[in-house]
Amino acid sequence: MVVEGKKILFVTTYLESADQYDYWGTNISGKVRFSYPRFSSYGLRFIKKNIPQIEILEYPTIEEYMDKLREDYDIIGFSFFTHEYPKIKRMIELARRSGVEEIWGGHYGVLTDGIEKMFDKTFVGYAEDEVADTLGMELERVKHPYLVDLVGLPGKLRAFPIGVLFTSRGCSLKCEFCQTPAFCPESIPVPIESIREAIAEYKKDGIVEILIPEEHFGLQKKHSEKVIDMLDENGMNWYAQTSINILDKKLDDWYDRGLSGAMLGIEGLRQEQVDSVSKNINVDKTVNLLNRLKDKNTFVIGNYMIGFVDDTEENIKECVLRLTDFSIDIIQICILTPFPKTPLWHEIKENYGIIENDWSKWDTKHLVWNHPNISQEKMDELLKWCFNKAYPRYRIFQTPIKFYRLHAHRYKAVGTRVSRLRTINKIVGDFWKANVRFEEPPSKI
Ligand code: SF4
To answer: CA nearest 303: which of 329, 341, 277, 325?
Structure first.
């Protein structure tokens, strides 16, 4: 069915006023930490860039959303994650009451069990082509939006702007806990021409730190190499979400071409844990890679899970303490969660049972199933304990020291006092620019 001549709004979940999503804040309990607040929705920016007639509204307050409903949209599309569903449900009810004809749903949240009846149409996967098709359009190629975030300290102090780059989306691997195989089971490259345009825009605006947060960078081997060449030619420092297996092979080469940090799915430090969720990694290799990354002063985010079926309070604590020996800047600790449409969902449901039917708790920071050794209350306590141990107060100094050393190496500024001063000058200059030029992230919708 082709939808023509309709007024369409795509929107994310609403936020409570003090509720801005901050990646660091969701994984560290202490106040002395860096911040990475999110102002934009990457998915909606892709939609807007490719289908400009769709209006978007990112992380509004509920009042801003209700004001928008007075503008008589024919269709409203909601982009959300599973834990955001209760708020989205409220937004849908408000939209229906105000006379919106059709409700669409997209992003990982549409995999949530039993919510299909709330939507007239859902889009599974990265859906610019499918949405365009529904509107009777054909996209020549998927274009990359301008996505800039500001990393910094809490409050108004910003450290530097970071350009976000998606080089491909989706993943062809099959880890049992992960929803990506159900959402986008192939790694689909973003056209190289679109990536070139995005890099050129970042370069023009003086943005040289690039974050690649896609599901699995490096799966598209030739494509990834072309992207790295472009980043390297433009003198950019880049940080990528990739796998231990790929980075283990590519670390030295990528480091010489600008790799400055990695986001890695460590998941567990006991081999039987990672095997139990079909995560194809060898723990010895993980340990070796973490040590190599430390030697290179690269920034590291380690995704780590607690609450495997055979976990006990003791072995969780033991492994988390071991993890703090490595130079990981943020350990993103998640509680094993059997998300809908994953193999783990079926396995846990049948063998142990789901005990949490409030979807807002499905944010990987709550225990939602009947664990054989640990209660929900005990898991809450354990998570707090893990957060405190994983980010002790002195950790705040580790990241800037690494940042300085890595940049000094990049700018070939090791050795003389003048060259060291030049590096500090450059870093302080970037910091100054970020604070003076960007009160909030620059936006080019
Ligand atoms: S956890 Fe990572 S590697 Fe595994 S399926 Fe998901 S995206 Fe792919």
So the answer is: 329
CB 116 within 8 A of CB 85: no
The confidence band for 354, taking pLDDT boundaries of 50, 70 and 90, is: very high
Q: Taking residues 87-92, what's their average pLDDT? A: 98
Alpha-carbon distance of 72 to 220, in angstroms, equals 43
Pinpoint the alpha helices (H) of 5-101: 42-50, 62-69, 85-97
Q: Please work out whether the CB of residue 342 comes within 6 Å of at least one atom of ligand 1.
A: no
Cβ–ligand 1 distance for 215 under 6 Å, the answer yes
Question: Residue 243 CA: which ligand 1 atom is closest?
Answer: 3
Whether 178 lines ligand 1, by a CB cut-off of 6 Å, is yes
pLDDT score at 413: 54
Ligand 1 close to Cβ of residue 216 (< 6 A): yes
Please state, rounded to an integer, the average pLDDT across all residues of the chain.
91
Atom in ligand 1 nearest the alpha carbon of residue 216: 7
Q: Tell me which of 3.40.640.10, 3.40.50.280, 3.40.630.30, 3.90.550.10 is the CATH number of domain 8-134.
A: 3.40.50.280
